[in-house]
Design brief:
The structure holds 2 protein chains of 2 kinds.
Chain A (H helix, E strand, L loop, with lengths): L1 H5 L3 H26 L1 H4 L12 H7 L1 H8 L7 E3 L12 E5 L2 E7 L5 E7 L5 E12 L4 E7 L8 E9 L4 E4 L14 H4 L4 E2 L9 E5 L11 E5 L3 H5 L3 H6 L3 H6 L19 H12 L2 E3 L2 H7 L13 E3 L30 H7 L11 H4 L19 H4 L20 H5 L4 E3 L2 E3 L21 H5 L5 H10 L20 H8 L2 H12 L7 H11 L5 H18 L4 H5 L7 H15 L8 H12 L8
Antiparallel strand pairs in A: 1-5, 2-3, 3-4, 4-5, 5-6, 6-7, 7-8, 7-9, 10-11, 12-13, 14-15
Helix pairs in contact in A: 4-5, 18-19, 19-20, 19-21, 20-21, 20-23
Chain B lengths: L2 H27 L9 H30 L4 H27 L12 H18 L11
Classes of the chains: A alpha+beta, B mainly alpha.
Chain lengths: ~600, ~140
């Protein structure tokens, strides 16, 4: 030590040498990294492996945490622990002549047992629950059952409704007739295969792996909608960023460009909206065989149109002239079901062909609350005000107060999804005059002013100085019978009836609560369980605000109960709320019912 | 670096990074944008504040150690310089790396931190190992 320490310049060498060596090494590696094409050049993202969200969390903990709170994460989960929202404590749901029992197996695993209550009495099937789907509105359950081929997973026809805290049968979530008592076919109508249906939009990088023999060896990159659903497979990105010098040099914005990952927040409105539109916009695949084998083939950041086309009212299949999707749209082409939000955006003038408003203008995965995922800084009318300033369009234009948001009139609740009414994502200006004399489409004005006719709305537009065309036709005879919403509730198609019930239940509706409850009573007798459910939920909502003493009577009504039980509960409510608006006007009632019966629907969830 | 100058500069280093602590607290109290909403920046500014102040104290201790252990002047001068420059590089490296950070990692100035840390480390080792008898022969 003395010899070494005693040498000339030893002090400088020993004290500064290691730091100098580090500096030289770091500079060399940095220069090598800068010159390395593999560190900066384009990569083949399509061939990249899925790394899963836990890997992303190592470098992006904030983004991971914000995503982790969302309902996207819990879209599909293994059926265990907190993932299960339903008790599975022996609850029973009797419906359509069958009894479903939700219980636990010997090892505590959740299971569903379905048995027939009629002839022949006996078990239809029993299955252990493998996975859950959904966690916001309702939760559905998946079981491994080889019905048609090996490796199949089936969505059971029962769901746990989160807000109601009860089991529902999925016949009550779809807009379709109830089915026949005791019919196993009708009861199991929504026992649907997960492998080539639900798997696509409820998981990350799914691969159905459908084989010619009817079997499946389905794989998913990660259960639920995880990071790589929106950013693409991140294997190449992770590999590249394993080099810490690469990450540190990337702090320089000039070097930050990175083809290894897609970032929707840095894309234009068109590309970023396609990332959402992949699932929030039903599509027709260009190559269905490839989709059933290897997934939809979409890579975030690339054009969605390369692999599919969005479904619109006039979409056809295989060169046919038929338009099988037409009933999913209103006559003017506006989607009337959820999961068509992307189409609504494409049809909106604000989208400006992809250069204007996009999904990310209002929604965010990382800067929002889980429900609706609206951007925190864009709450209220902020997004609209980004283009339509107060000078050009005063907040209280058209005689409405500032309490009425832009969306209330320009994105009316004319969409059905997840057993409730939802706002339309086609941004429009109300024009009730164009719909005078028609009964096939609701309008923004009368969906809120539920006691008014469409002619009233059309005249009001002009009186308030709002834009709107001339009345397209003379008012129909029915218009004198009641308001637009009342006519829809008693004579509309099932979707109009649900939306009418939804409109009557809105707390912002400037109409007497008792009147609305009395009208809603009529829909409790509807043939469609989904309409009954909407009416029952609406009635409960109005009653809880305006007539809490009715809560018990409203709670006694079960939309899935046998018809005699339901009618008993309705009669009890009628004694308090009074007769429906068409009492003593049987001809009108019959006319509306006939109109209703001519408009069967088999759509929607 | 002379002992007096080293002591003054070390105490100054402590004072500067302690003052930075006040600044950080004020930013937290005022919920300053770019501070409360930027966890990476916040983490690295905190690291800079803590390391700068603590390594300033380490410098005071090393200066005292050199005198107490009668470290030969030729060594002591360089030890004080290396320790002080090292402490500055660590503190400033963290702060600048945090201020100029990228999406997931600190900026290029963070590379000063390992270099500075090595200098403080070698200084500490030298104070511990070099004896009064370890006299560097005259170069002439």
């Amino acid at each position: 030590m003395t010899t070494m320490v005693g040498r000339p310049r030893a002090a400088a060498l020993l004290l500064f040498g290691p730091a100098v060596i580090f500096a030289v090494a770091a500079t060399s590696v940095a220069l090598w990294t800068l010159a390395d094409d593999d560190a900066w050049g384009p990569v083949d993202r399509r061939e990249a492996a899925v790394v899963q969200s836990d890997t992303c969390a190592r470098c992006h903990p904030e983004q991971h945490a914000s995503w982790h709170r969302t309902y996207h994460r819990t879209m599909t989960q293994i059926a265990e622990g907190d993932a299960l929202l339903a008790p599975f404590a022996g609850e029973q749901l009797d419906y359509l002549g069958f009894r479903a029992t939700m219980e636990r197996g010997p090892e505590g695993r959740p299971r569903v047992r379905i048995e027939s209550l009629g002839e022949p009495v006996g078990e239809v099937f029993a299955a252990d629950i493998a996975m859950t789907v959904g966690s916001h509105r309702y939760q559905q359950y998946l079981a491994r059952i080889d019905r048609e081929g090996a490796g199949e997973v089936w969505r059971l026809p029962l769901a746990w409704h989160v807000a109601e805290g009860r089991w529902i049968h999925l016949n009550g979530a779809f807009l379709e007739p109830e089915g026949n008592l005791g019919s196993e076919e009708d009861y199991l109508r929504h026992l649907s295969r997960w492998n080539d249906n639900c798997v696509f939009c409820h998981n990350t990088e799914p691969r159905p792996r459908a084989a010619a023999d009817g079997s499946f060896s389905t794989q998913v990159g990660e259960l639920g909608i995880a990071c790589e659903a929106c950013h693409g497979p991140a294997g190449a990105h992770v590999e590249r960023h394993a080099n810490p010098l690469r990450r540190i040099l990337a702090a320089d914005t000039a070097l930050r460009q990175d083809g290894s990952i897609a970032d929707p927040s840095e894309m234009g409105a068109d590309r970023s909206s396609e990332v959402c539109g992949r699932c929030h916009g039903n599509r027709i695949a260009r190559d269905l065989g490839a989709v059933l084998r290897d997934g939809d083939g979409f890579l975030p950041g690339e054009e969605l149109a390369q692999v599919s086309r969005p479904i619109f009212a006039d979409s056809a299949l295989g060169g046919s002239a038929d338009t099988p999707f037409a009933e999913r749209f209103w006559p003017d082409g506006t989607p009337r079901l959820s999961a068509y939000e992307y189409q609504g955006l494409l049809l909106s003038p604000c989208h400006e062909g992809g250069e204007g408003l996009g999904c990310g203008s209002c929604h965010s995965m990382h800067e929002s609350e889980p429900s609706m995922q609206l951007r925190r800084e864009h709450r209220g009318d902020a997004t609209c005000r980004g283009c339509h300033d107060e000078g050009a369009i005063p907040a209280a234009h058209g005689g409405h107060s500032e309490a009425i948001s832009c969306a209330a009139c320009h994105m009316p609740r004319v969409t059905y999804g997840l057993v409730q009414g939802m706002i339309s994502h086609r941004i429009t200006s109300p024009d009730p005059a164009a719909l005078v004399g028609r009964d096939d489409q609701p309008d923004a004005c009368t969906q809120c002013h539920v006691d008014r006719s469409r002619s009233w709305a059309a005249e009001g537009m002009a009186a308030l100085g709002l834009r709107g065309g001339q009345a397209a036709a003379s008012p129909s005879v029915e218009e004198s019978w009641g308001s637009r919403v009342l006519l829809d509730l008693y004579g509309g198609d099932p979707l109009q009836r649900v939306l009418a019930a939804d409109a009557l239940a809105q707390t912002s509706t400037p109409v007497d609560a008792e009147l609305r409850m009395r009208w809603l009573l009529g829909a409790l007798e509807d043939e469609y369980p989904a309409v009954r459910f909407a009416a029952a939920r609406g009635l409960a909502r109005v009653a809880s605000d305006a007539a809490p003493e009715l809560t018990a009577k409203v709670g006694a009504y079960d939309f899935l109960a046998p018809v005699d039980v339901r009618l008993g509960a309705v009669d009890a409510l009628r004694e308090v709320l009074g007769e429906d608006p068409f009492t003593g006007q049987e001809e009108r009632r019959r006319s509306l019912l006939e109109h209703q019966e001519r408009q069967l629907l088999w759509i929607g969830e | 670096m002379s002992a007096d100058r080293h002591l003054r500069l070390s105490i100054a280093l402590v004072a500067i990074f302690l003052a930075m602590g006040l600044w950080l607290e004020a930013m937290y109290g005022l919920r300053a944008e770019g501070w409360v909403d930027d966890p990476l920046r916040r983490e690295f500014l905190r690291l800079g504040h803590a390391h700068g102040a603590l390594l300033g104290l380490v410098n005071v201790a090393l200066g005292w150690g050199c005198e107490r252990l009668a470290t030969p002047a030729a060594w002591a001068t360089k030890i004080r310089l290396a320790a002080w420059v090292g402490a500055c590089l660590v503190g400033v490296g963290f702060v600048a790396g945090g201020l100029l950070h990228g999406p997931t990692d600190p900026g290029l100035p963070i590379l000063a931190v390992p270099a500075g840390a090595l200098m403080v480390l070698t200084s500490s080792v030298a104070v511990a190992l070099v004896r009064p008898s370890d006299i560097v022969p005259s170069s002439d």
